Amino acid sequence: MVAMSDRTYNILFLCTGNSARSVLAEVIMNRLSKGRFRAYSAGSHPAGEVNPFTLELLHNKGLATDGLRSKNWDEFTGPDAPAMDFVITVCDKAAGEVCPVWPGQPMTAHWGFEDPAAAQGSDEARRKVFMKVFVEIARRIELMLALPIEKLDPLALERQVRGIGNT
In whole angstroms, how far apart are CA 120 and each of 19, 47, 124, 130? Predict the structure, then answer.
């Protein structure tokens, strides 16, 4: 039998376009969790490509961008999809949409962030918004990674994960 602490948790970050916030969350979680989590991202209405400012920021932070793409959340509802332990919406629009039924009844939470892809102004001003959102996402992921996941009962864990969205 595998000890709970040896388990890898699957987490899906959702946004409407899957071009900025959810992709940032996927990459940050995969880096910071050091294998404790396997993060994915998707969107209800994918933009079709990852925002160039997202890719630039991740590259400048030394984070891998290979294989990143904007994808529909339907990819994670089929029988061959990985079973999710957590599904977190990172934009208010996706949080208000009717989500698919996720196999395995994962814990759900909403962590709203400003949409950096909608930022206006010069490229430098837009980069600042992307950096601000990157820092906010990283902080919430750090808070989640600090939770004693293996020691909390499911309801307490879900309450804690949802509470992170209020920070």
Answer: 16, 18, 10, 11
Is residue 1, in this structure, part of any structural domain at all?
A: no
Cβ contact 53:162 at 8 Å = no
- Does residue 3 sit within a domain? no
**Residue 89 maps to a domain:** yes
| 99 a catalytic residue | yes
Query: How many domains, in total, are found in the chain?
Result: 1
Identified catalytic residue from 47, 63, 99, 147: 99
Instruction: Round to the nearest angstrom and report the end-to-end CA distance of the chain.
Output: 36
User: Which entry of 11, 15, 137, 144 is annotated as an active-site residue?
Assistant: 15
Residue 40 falls in the annotated catalytic set? no
- For residue 61, give the CATH number of its domain: 3.40.50.2300
Q: Label residue 140 exposed, middle or buried (CB < 10 Å: 0-12, 13-18, 19+).
A: buried
**pLDDT tens digits in sequence order for the chain, 167 residues long:** 334 457 899 999 999 999 999 999 999 999 999 999 999 999 999 999 999 999 999 999 999 999 999 999 999 988 888 999 999 999 876 555 566 667 778 999 999 999 999 999 999 999 999 999 999 999 999 999 999 999 999 999 999 999 999 87
Task: Give the domain range for residue 25.
Answer: 9-164
Q: Is residue 32 annotated as a catalytic residue, yes or no? A: no
